[in-house]
Design a protein that fits this description.
Shape: globular
Number of helices: 12
Strand content: under 5%
Low-confidence stretches: none
Distance between the termini: 78 Å
Length: about 300
């Protein structure tokens, strides 16, 4: 009787080795899976809820009117709500002015604190400190500064540069610049931090070679600095544009959307519609439209800016 042929050791151990080798490759994904699922739950549930309520008539104070609305809320937004277009226009104006000014001032500050000078560490700390202040606290600081009795306007009036009792936040001609300055104080350090971090990675040899070739500071900035920090500028402007579009805390505390609705952004209008008017169905539809606008603009911006590609 022929005896059973014993397979070589390699044939038995090879599959086992392959299974053992696959575990380390999957281990990182297994470790982050609980946190990933938790984050997905916190993000997915609110998004799905907003999409669901956008198709509903939902007002807790008028339960007899609640029910399926279909596309009625969206039809009302685009055909029968002039406040939507007004708040959207102001939101775009607010984002453009704020992001442009914050980028320019942030870039200038980053270039300054990137230089070597006495007290640079202290200078960097002072430049970056406003970013650590919360939005509500920032608003409270600037409300006190703009107070007509004890704020800046009072001291300017003492110097003969204005009239007593002037409230910049109550005047339609001054409320927008006043709100812009308040948000600049907090937003500029964000750009300065990100751009400075990217400036640290620019090779010094490039500047030395450019100086040998006779290139001045302007040409060095255009041909060396800007190409190296391009991705940082694109990313920071995109993030800040999204945050400024969704800005509620500062404008709500400073002006409440006034005077006469002059500083009401679309997110602030959504907050008033949901929290004050309790019309959560219509507010959800407004939120869905705002989400689609931000998503579309972000995709177009990233495509046009060629984010992550080779610098031109």
């Amino acid at each position: 009787m022929a005896s059973a042929v014993t397979p070589p050791p390699q044939a038995v151990t090879a599959p086992r080795r392959r299974r053992t080798g696959a575990t380390p490759r999957r281990l990182p994904y297994l470790l982050i899976a609980p946190a990933g699922l938790l984050m997905l739950g916190f993000i997915a549930y609110p998004v799905i809820s907003v999409f669901y309520y956008s198709l509903q008539h939902y007002n807790p104070t008028k339960p007899w009117r609640n029910g399926f609305a279909g596309l009625d809320n969206f039809t009302r937004i685009f055909t029968d709500d002039p406040r939507f277009w007004g708040t959207l226009t102001f939101s775009l104006k607010w984002v453009f002015v704020e992001v442009t000014l914050q980028l320019l001032f942030g870039l200038a500050l980053a270039l300054i604190v990137n230089q070597t000078f006495v007290g640079r560490a202290l200078g960097r700390a002072l430049v970056f400190s406003p970013w650590a202040v919360s939005g509500v606290l920032t608003s409270a600081i600037w409300v006190l500064l703009y107070n007509s009795q004890t704020g800046i306007s009072r001291y300017l009036a003492d110097l003969g540069l204005g009239t007593y009792g002037t409230s910049w936040l109550s005047d339609t001609s001054t409320v927008f610049p006043a709100a812009i300055v308040a948000d600049l104080w907090r937003g500029v350090p964000f750009f300065a931090i990100l751009i400075l971090a990217d400036l640290q990675s620019v090779p010094k040899d490039l500047y030395e070679a450019a100086e040998v070739d006779g290139a001045g500071r302007v040409r060095q900035f255009v041909h060396i600095t800007l190409p190296h920090i391009r991705d940082a500028i694109v990313l920071s402007t995109l993030l800040r544009a999204v945050w400024e579009f969704n800005n509620v805390d500062l404008l709500y505390t400073l002006t409440g959307g006034g005077p006469a609705g002059e500083t009401t952004t679309l997110p602030l209008y959504i907050a008033h519609t949901s929290v004050d008017a309790h019309n959560f169905g219509y507010a959800s539809a407004l939120t869905t439209v705002a989400f689609v606008i931000l998503l579309f603009c972000s995709m177009v911006y990233l495509r046009l800016s060629k984010f992550g590609g080779d610098a031109p």
